[in-house]
Predict the structure.
Amino acid sequence: MTSLFVRACERQEVERTPVWFMRQAGRYQPEYRQLRKRLSLLDICERPDVCTEVTLLPVRQLEVDAAILFSDITVPLRAIGIGLDIVENVGPVVAEPLRSAEDLGRLRTLVPEEDEPYVAAAVRQLVGELGPVPLIGFAGGPFTLASYLVEGGPSRNYRRLKGLMWQDPSLFHALMERLADLTEGHLAAQANAGAAALQIFDSWIGCLSPADYRRHVLPVMQDLFGRLKALRVPTIYFGVETAGLLEAMAGAGADVIGVDWRVSIGDAAARIGHELAIQGNLDPALLLAPSDETAQAAKAILRAMSGRRGHIFNLGHGVLPETPPDALRRLVEIVRQESLDA
Ligand code: CP3
């Protein structure tokens, strides 16, 4: 029997709204913080046993409808030898940023079986242990990966990346194509090992104007999602602050569009159209608010989506480290009750 989550991705009729959370495994959990005292984030990603344990934690504690592989968008970049560290409270920092045509040579082809065998190993182990709960595999979008590679780390206004995009569009395009190949290889390894769906985190595309997104990013995404169809699992395309880009993103070829909270889900759904499913979009900060506020906001999202096929409840971005685990548990319960009653 196909899972509730996958059926919602495919816009089939479902008995209630499935729910999971981006960053459902992480620092808000005391067990995770404990583990991180002896292992780095990347150590966890590279050890299938530990990765499995961390991925399963929220599934057991929250009873969400999907698991997401514990990993990071930077994992395949490290796997091909890019010098990169994840700095606490900062994010990914690249030792030698990519800025020239010669630098592109450092982005060699990913051979998942050799470069990152631990990824497929963790997926296989998880699929065995999860039983009926589907596992989501993921990767970073080419633009979002390029932002770290070109800027050298997190950025406020992406001056260097946009500079490259406008000054040397063909070099920018070549960079995007190499990263699309990397993303495809990394996602294929996860799907072939048993992942039930794939999400592309293109977190930072919202920094682009609709015109630049359509010209410089969308064609690469259309090609990428086209190639992913061969894997025969639903695909989810997510970005932050994408209210200006939704119509364009809807044409990328994904099955589901993930939206943040800066757009009302009703508007977003109308603009995406009825051919695609939608995922979102509670403000993660609402989990720190009085529980009645959280409940009201969650119910408003469900009301706005009642009658629409293909809604997956989620936050608009990842769980914040300060989130009380109980607030997430209560939220799952509310989504379950309310959508059953609807
Ligand atoms: O959702 C899940 O439970 C899977 C785990 C997951 C991680 N990274 C683990 C992680 C996922 C889906 C990601 C994706 C990711 N990584 C994105 C896209 C999603 C988004 O948040 O927009 C991005 C941009 C990254 C890059 C990255 N890695 C950032 C910006 C940070 C935060 C740095 C910080 O300290 O605040 C990381 C580190 C990271 N990746 C953590 C986790 C749980 C932080 C906790 C830790 O260091 O142990």
User: Anything to note?
Assistant: The first helix runs from residue 4 to 9. The chain is about 50% helix and 10% strand. Residues 22-27, 36, 41, 68, 70, 72-73, 86, 88-89, 91-92, 138, 201, 203, 318 surround coproporphyrinogen III (CB under 6 Å).
